[in-house]
Write a sequence for this structure.
């Protein structure tokens, strides 16, 4: 069940009422879309059932933005967005911002961690401009969505690449070390010929939508070499005996960090979502 009608990135047909007002008559088929679970229903036939909130559609590339500090790097959030992107079959890269504040070089460790799995990673500083041009070159000819938690610097990165856009930039709370929302609606803007960016509101958390427990493991790239070796074809890689994934974790062939992310997502999947 989908919460949205028309979403950011949709191609639509409209009837013009005035120079500033129009009515959407139809929506063209989407080639893809990125979504998450919305809030629970408070009434209706399926009380508590989760709806699907579409973030944006017709996306070529997702940039999952995190900061290494202020707020602290959150690999659990990144892993959830990876699952959402993988399940939607949308290409993505990870962007680690604020490396100018990274005195202990933690960003390099996380870059190597995700690259070792097979994911593309950019380490950047919106403040100093480091590696911003490298990131900008990857946007050419695509519809690019930037998504991350509040305060990680999505809008600052976009402003450093395209100063004329003047996206609003917020601060990080000194008390909570969490971002303060400044982008309150998604923005879709053309920045060059056939090149577009989508800046989305910062969020605190994401639950991927529409994923079955038996399919989740396929969205963890490093699990794939082991999946056929489980004793049971219905294995959820949680507590089952002779599980090849658990064995690989115990042997250090799969990171405990990624396995914990897998378990966290597995425990949020609602069995009654599908009927």
């Amino acid at each position: 069940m989908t919460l949205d009608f028309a979403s950011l990135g949709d191609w639509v047909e409209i009837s013009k009422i005035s120079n500033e007002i129009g009515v959407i008559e139809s929506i063209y088929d989407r080639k893809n879309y990125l979504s998450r679970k919305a809030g629970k229903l408070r009434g209706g036939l399926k009380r508590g059932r989760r709806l699907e909130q579409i973030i944006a559609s017709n996306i070529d590339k997702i940039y999952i933005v995190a900061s290494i500090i202020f707020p602290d790097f959150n690999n659990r959030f990144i892993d959830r967005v990876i699952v959402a992107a993988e399940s939607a079959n949308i290409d993505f890269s990870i962007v680690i911002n604020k490396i100018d504040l990274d005195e202990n070089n933690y960003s390099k460790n996380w870059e190597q961690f995700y690259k070792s799995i097979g994911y593309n990673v950019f380490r950047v500083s919106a403040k100093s401009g480091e590696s911003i041009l490298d990131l900008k070159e990857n946007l050419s000819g695509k519809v690019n969505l930037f998504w991350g938690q509040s305060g990680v610097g999505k809008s600052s990165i976009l402003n450093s690449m395209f100063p004329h856009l003047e996206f609003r930039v917020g601060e990080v709370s000194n008390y909570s070390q969490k971002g303060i929302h400044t982008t309150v609606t998604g923005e879709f803007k053309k920045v060059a010929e056939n090149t577009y960016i989508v800046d989305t509101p910062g969020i605190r958390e994401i639950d991927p939508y529409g994923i079955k427990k038996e399919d989740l493991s396929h969205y963890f790239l490093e699990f794939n070499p082991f999946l056929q070796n489980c004793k049971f074809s219905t294995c959820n890689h949680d507590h089952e005996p002779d599980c090849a994934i658990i064995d690989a974790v115990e042997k250090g062939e799969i990171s405990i960090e990624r396995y914990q992310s897998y378990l966290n997502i597995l425990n949020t999947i609602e069995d009654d979502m599908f009927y």
About this structure: The chain has two domains: 1-209, 213-273. Helices lie at 75-87, 106-117, 132-137, 154-161, 213-216, 244-250, 256-266. DSSP finds seven helices and ten strands in the chain. The mean pLDDT is 88.
